[in-house]
Amino acid sequence: MSKKITVGPVGYMPQSAPSMGVELSPEGKALLYGNIVEEEEAMRDAAKALLTMDNPTIFPGPMVLWDWKEDVAEKSGAILDLASEIPGCKIIPMPDYRPKYPKIDVKAEINPNHPNLTILDNKIKACVFIGVHCHYANLTLRMIRAGTACYTVAMCAEMGHEEAMASIRDVHAADVLRFRDIIIEVRNELGIEYTTTMPPENPSLPKEDWGSLTPSDYGEYRSLIMSKKGEHVTAVE
Amino acid sequence: MSLNKTLVDMNYLLKEAPREQHFITGAQAMAEAVKRASCDMAIAYPITPQSEVMHLVGDIYAQGHIKEYYRAEEELGTMSAIAGAARGGVRMFTATSGPGLLRGLEAIVSWPGHRIPCVLGVLTRVVNAPLSIQPDNIEMAYLMHSGIVMLHAENQQDTFDMTLAAFAITEKVDVYIPVSVSTEGFFVTHAKGYVDMMSDELAFTECDPYKAPVPAMDNEVPPARIQRDAPVQKSNFMSYLIHSVWQQEIWDCNKRAMKYIYEYLDGPIEVTNPNAKVMLVASGCAAAQAREANRYAEEEGLDVGFVKVRAIRPFPTDELNAALAGAECVIVPEHNIIGWLSKEVKAAIPNGGIVVEGPRVYGGMTLPVELIMTEIYDALGMDSLVLQA
């Protein structure tokens, strides 16, 4: 198979995968290095990458981080199951798409406006994006391909992503669990001994200490919690 | 919908639903398409008198086919409000013409980047001084580099079908940028033609705002957030990179629209006699005249073919290359002075030197078939004056 889309860094000014002739896979198929293949083939290659490359990480996006519709909790549970079968796997969320200024906490989160920073700082060589809105996933995947040496897997609820090395489309909870099963299968084939372990707590997230909060902790939102001059707030929730 | 309609998918609506023939204007055809599109809202500053599309859309709002409609303060306000409403999650339509389009252009060119799914009717007219309200499609040149998907209708039937298809294409998750349907003002908008239409008791499936590549707008996510705290307005490499890949994404979306143009409209071009020595390539109203010239040529036994270009963006480069592979001369008649289509065709094929840039008419002039025939005779080395006599 000729690889149209490869692990980066591809350079300063990346060419987009669609402009290189890569097309989204039809229903029931997947993309692997820009080629249309069977889903299992893409999953097996992705599994091998996640099991053999350094610091495998799952980046869950807003659509699986918030319980906003019926099937989300089941899918999120499946993602935890998936992570627990990948040795050394971390979970670093993409909770929203806001640019993080003046500085992103790269241990705590990833951001579509500068995803390279999280990938590079954590020395991540293989990762999975899931639950990220397609527009932001495409930008993120392209920037990672441009500036890092990271194998990207896109597990998309819609049509998939041309920019990822492996792209699985129409992903529901059952598909995540199928990928988990393939991870276990490939892990056994590679002779990797491992006991199912939940990924570590995100070490960088500060412990919430509501007692010492001051208005300045709310940054630009402080005006929302501070009473205005002459205003007396009497009712509280 | 406020009316009790049967909702169906676009493939059924366009290809399977029984149709009846009507004799209506192009403006009516566009409004009739909107009537069947489960459009939530229309906003307009209806430029008069070039197109009565938005007046007619106002009528169908009054009849209950559209949930909300209002007249904005002017075109920039219209196009800005379209963006806000669409990103709020509703299906939107507006239409404009010439100077109105250019006045709204600042907002329109930001639509693709903000991932605005909406349908824009462009009923072309002269935009330059001295003032004229006559047909001339130079305004389409200004849209060609905006990133939006552009369809160009030849006649009333095209206007109806393309407008309906546009509603489906714009909301595809892998597209999700605006789709414009252009046609020549007056020649199509004010003239009647036969249009086969399905019952207006049928309508396109309603908009699902959650099936989108971006979250519905709120104050914490772009585009609203971008306007307040733009990652792209910082002076550093990452800011430039996000902007560049964002721009790439818009043109990728544009490219992805091609498969839906095949699905709903039978492809971006229509070809007659593809192996001819002389090929006519035209879009919109000029395609109707080129089609007629092709018929004349056929009657005279001349080796002439015809390509009608339906999609201006994405531009059908591969398709044109295949259709024009055997041509020794390509004639591109147009309704504008700059010849935007001939420039596109020239750039698309490896032997651009065979393109004849014209004939062109503008400022409201009609395009006589005889002008095209003269170019055909010249291309074939015939004495056109004798033959025309």
Put the structure in a nutshell.
Chain B: Its EC number is 1.2.7.1. The complex is a heterodimer of chains A (237) and B (389). In chain A, 31% of the residues lie in helices and 11% in strands.
What does this structure look like?
The complex is a heterodimer of chains A (237) and B (389). Chain A is an alpha/beta fold and 237 residues long. Chain A has a single domain, classed as Rossmann fold (3-Layer(aba) Sandwich), CATH 3.40.50. Helix content of chain A is 31%, strand content 11%. Chain A contains seven helices and seven strands, in the order E-E-H-E-H-H-E-H-E-H-E-E-H-H. A seven-stranded mixed beta sheet of chain A has the order 2-1-7-6-5-3-4, sandwiched between helices. In chain A, a hairpin with a 2-residue loop joins strand 1 and strand 2. The longest helix of chain A is centred in the last third of the chain and has 17 residues. Chain A starts with 28 loop residues before the first strand and ends in a 12-residue tail after the last helix. The relative contact order of chain A is 0.18. In chain B, helix 2 packs parallel to helix 8 and helix 11 packs across helix 14. Chain B folds into two domains: 199 residues, Thiamin diphosphate (ThDP)-binding fold, Pyr/PP domains (Rossmann fold), CATH 3.40.50; 120 residues, Rossmann fold, CATH 3.40.50. With 389 residues, chain B is of the alpha/beta class. Chain B has 15 helices and 16 strands. Helices cover 39% and strands 19% of the residues of chain B. In chain B, the strands form four sheets. Chain B has a seven-stranded mixed beta sheet with strand order 4-3-5-6-8-7-14, with helices on both faces. A five-stranded mixed beta sheet of chain B has the order 11-13-12-15-16, with helices on both faces. Chain B has a two-stranded parallel ribbon with strand order 1-10. In chain B, strand 12, helix 11 and strand 13 form a beta-alpha-beta unit. The chains are: A alpha/beta (237), B alpha/beta (389). The interface between A and B is medium-sized, with 33 and 32 residues.
